[in-house]
Amino acid sequence: MALNIDTFSNVSGGFSFFKAIGHPLAAPKVNALLNRFEGSVAIYDPSGYATAFASLHDMTSLECAGVFVQDLDAIGDTVLGQRTQPVTAITDCDAHAVLVLAFDAERLIAHIQHLVPGSMEVVSLDAVRLDDTMLTNPQRYLDPINFATNFAFFRDTGEHHTRLVTANYWAGYGARDTRIWLRLFDAAGQPMADWTEDLPSTMGTVTFDSREIRTRFGLPEFAGQIFLHVINGAGHDVVKYALDTYGQSDTILSCTHDANAWPADLYAGLPAPGEGEEVILWVQNSHPSPIPAGSLKLNQMGQDCFAALDQAIPPFGSYPLDVGHLLPKLRWPAQIEIHAGKHFVRPRYEVISRTGRQRISHPNVQRTDLVPDPGIPEIGNLMGKGYLLPAPILPIDRFRTVVLPTPMSTVQETLPVAAVVYDSDGRTVARHAFGNLPRDHCSALEIDRLVGDTTGAALPGGYGHVELVYDFTQGGAADGWMHGLFRYEDRENGHGADTSFGAHIFNTTLTYRNEPQSYSGPAPGLSTRLFLRLGRAPLETQCHLIYPASTSWHDRSDTHLILFDGSGTEITDHKVEIPCGGSLYWCYGDLFDEAEKRAAGDDGYVLIRDHTCRLFGYHGLLHGSASFSLDHMFGF
């Protein structure tokens, strides 16, 4: 059963109401509010929140005397099993109390006070507000900045550890006295620890390591999630972070990024297990209501045969779902669609090989609001390659690279795509036409097939990048939401990493459908600000920067790798130049000397800044020759 809540719109952004009533600190207040009523209750729903409220909180114990609305167009709708009435009719309602489903409700209550019989108590959702100390803007409760929240997978056992790193990027937008309130949940959804961390006054870092937290609070082993709530932020209501998973053994290493804070109906790009593999989907409830048994369903992408999880998951609980139990015959490179029903934010999946090697990655949100765009095949005369999706080809003497196009919207019945390989200088090395792929395709491309060998002869410098682009030579339609999963494997030991993302138009002055995308202000986005967290010894940090261009742009980038310490103090600035259409693979120790690294310390970071072009970046860690990790970077 899907939750009937509004979480995100690609037009207006994220919604705050579901966060406000589902916040871990608000949930017990809501329960107390609902339990206080004796006798019948009239529901006044001026903003249309009743259905969402009832999706997250059990209202069956209330004796509902009627649902009343303000908007004439809403009169006569069925809400909470009742036909809605105009609020003016509340005068004739025989109820003991009125529950106003709104925050900042003083003005709304004043408007109806003359209609309410004197014997009725009037209560609003202001009774379940968070304390003002938790709010950035107490004057407007549902201001999105008040609910800059997110979840993260978090685990600490004898074998597994987790490290979350973010920066106080809100300080760059003028925020002051910024802090993060955190709650750690165990697998059953029970709180294990609450605490608040003050952030540096400048753009410094903050790190949450599961081993340190477990020691600090004297906790047993856990495999659950951590909830983050940023207070006194500015500019961004999105909590971005890098998440590393590592272990006592060097066979456990991976990295991923923030979970995307808005639960979605569908996720896609979950790989089926390969031979000798398990794929564990970490289902982590994002709400104070349970996920009913049978609500979560999986199916092979493009097929209509669904398998449901016959297991309820408690509020804020976590469940490791072995996808092989629900889809036992499915094998890589088949891919899986997740019917999540808005019960959880973008989940993680864990791949466990028969050799014991483990890594974690994530599916992506599958959009339900798109239609095929007939203009995309026609824009090439002005937009060149148009939409493109760049991904690294890591040094080929060590790493194998595999490309899998992944449907990521419900209208993508076909995927007309090609893969183009470029060397580090931006020269075309090879092209592979996938053709007009069906939605249920299993067409993975080994880059080795295109470059011929692993000596570097085809790729001077030994690395490069691959781009997925539209290719309509065999027909097909497009909606601009092209995605791919990129899989990397160490040739010697088999350690792997998955990363996935979507296409954009890069580095053109002309704009199309809000592309080239800009994270601050209108399109086009033609500059770069990427955050690179640094690994602690013995881990080395790797980074692959790609300069993708849909049309010709500046011949070379003007890229600055600015090293900061953990407090946000600049240590040094190294300038590099990347050819247009090319890439740069580098490691922290290659570009920064020992004195600079000592000054940056364990919690330093690199800000990748370029005012001349938009770069796309991937980051990861190297544990010598034993293991590695990789995922795409985030900017702010």
Strand content: 35-45%
Q: Quick one: CATH class of the largest domain? A: Mainly Beta
**The biggest beta sheet, please?**
5 strands, parallel
Mean pLDDT: 95
User: What would the principal axes of the Cα set say about the shape?
Assistant: globular
Outline:
Helices cover about 10% and strands about 40% of the residues. The protein is mainly beta and about 625 residues long. It has a 5-stranded parallel sheet with strand order 7-4-3-8-9, with no helix packed on it. The chain has a 5-stranded antiparallel sheet with strand order 21-20-23-18-26, with no helix packed on it. It has a 5-stranded antiparallel sheet with strand order 30-29-32-27-35, with no helix packed on it.
